[in-house]
Amino acid sequence: MARVSKPPEIRRQELIDAALALFMEKGYESVSVRDILKVVNGHPGMFYYYFESKQEIYNEAMRQMGKAEIAKRAVILGDTDKPVMLRFKELFCLIESGIRDYYRTFSNPESIAYETMTAFDLLTGMAEPVSRFMLEAKAEGIIPADSGIDENTAYPMSLFIIHGCHGLVHNSDVRDSSFDIGHFIPFIARFLGISENLLKEALKEDEA
Predict the structure, then answer these.
(1) Helix boundaries (H) for the chain
(2) Is 136 exposed, middle or buried (0-12, 13-18, 19+ CB in 10 A)?
(3) What residue intervals traverse the membrane (predicted)?
């Protein structure tokens, strides 16, 4: 049977998609280049045309997964047809599952520096939608008028919250089933001057 010719960018993405699925299923150490090639019916020459090593495709798969997760969060925050608190609940639900999936899949000690820089860049990209969301919440009276949030401060304050929560994640064992995204609530509530009980009740309703 003749080999189907595909554009290079499609071939490359097929390899990344196959690698990501395998990394999520088995973890980095249990996946080989041969395993990836078996999924796409490829040969070593094809793999090494696009990637120098398993580490390189791992890094790219991690970057793409993170970018997709951030995009999902931005869509939720920007859906102004839904009430602010409903979007808050949906966002937290997605974040909790996303954190577990991300760290269960990407836990290669050799990639710590790359993972740190990638996470920093991706999370910084969330600052704009988060800042707009905070301004909307303030306009609706959910965030107090004296919170200090305005058009000039919303963006830097959103960066502080995003990277602060990321720090809390790294201070927890996210692979432990006891990990609870509710740990973010006191931090966010006190920083924005929101009722902690209001946010906790929103999450309880989401679980119901």
Answers:
(1) 8-26, 33-40, 44-50, 54-78, 84-105, 112-124, 127-139, 154-170, 184-192, 196-207
(2) middle
(3) none
User: Residue 158 in contact with residue 130, Cβ under 8 Å?
Assistant: yes
Domain boundaries, the chain: 1-51, 62-207
Q: Which residues contact 42 (CB under 8 A, 6 or more apart)?
A: 11, 15, 36
What architecture (CATH level 2) is domain 1-51?
A: Orthogonal Bundle (1.10)
Specify the residue for token string 């910084």.
124
Cα(86)–Cα(2) distance, integer angstroms: 52
Q: What is the DSSP letter of 151?
A: T
